[in-house]
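hey so u asked for the seq, here:
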Amino acid sequence: MTRIAYYNQLRMLALEKREQYSVTTPTLNLLCMRRMYKGEGIKIDLRSIKGNKIRAAYFCDDGDYSVLLNRQLPREPRLFSLAHELKHHYVDQQQIQEGAIRCGDYNAHEFIEKGAEVFAAEFIYPEAEMRELVGQLGIAQEGFTPETIVHFKRACPAPVSYSFLVKRFAWFGFCVEQEFKQVQFQKLEEKIFGTPIYKQRWFKQYRARRRKTV
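ran it, structure tokens below
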């Protein structure tokens, strides 16, 4: 099977699973993902793991399914990691049980791991939905800037990171991923829209006072 055919199959599978579990982009969250994992009989094993090397890993043995998940991950990477591991559950079980592949060993199994990324991306934010919003916002290749991505994220209903959006827009041909990787999008967002409440000094002081009274 060609790489393109393989990826297209995974995109279709992601859409099928969204429909099976009644997943919609605006309602997709960690609770929704936990319910889906419960439906699949997969245990989530939250662990504190030092460093950023390991985000999650899928294990299966004689009907016992579990995913090791780094509890330090923020919401968007956590969701993506959980969706990523679902691909291994649906597609790679036999090979994992036979020891043919090790979940997370990206360099040794780039084709399989990249497929998991494709599945996760389509599951979390279907390409067709993103293209529709791009059209609604009138975004074009001409004049496309990092600021464009910031404004898109503010309008986007999907729980996705800036890294996710950069990869997608690069796939759409709007930008070069390597050039945009150096952009500090969070700082750019704060420059455009101001510092969010939870980062402001008065709010931090308020929360500190609340903790003392609880």
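The mean pLDDT is 88. The CA atoms of residues 136 and 190 lie 24 Å apart.
lmk if thats what u needed
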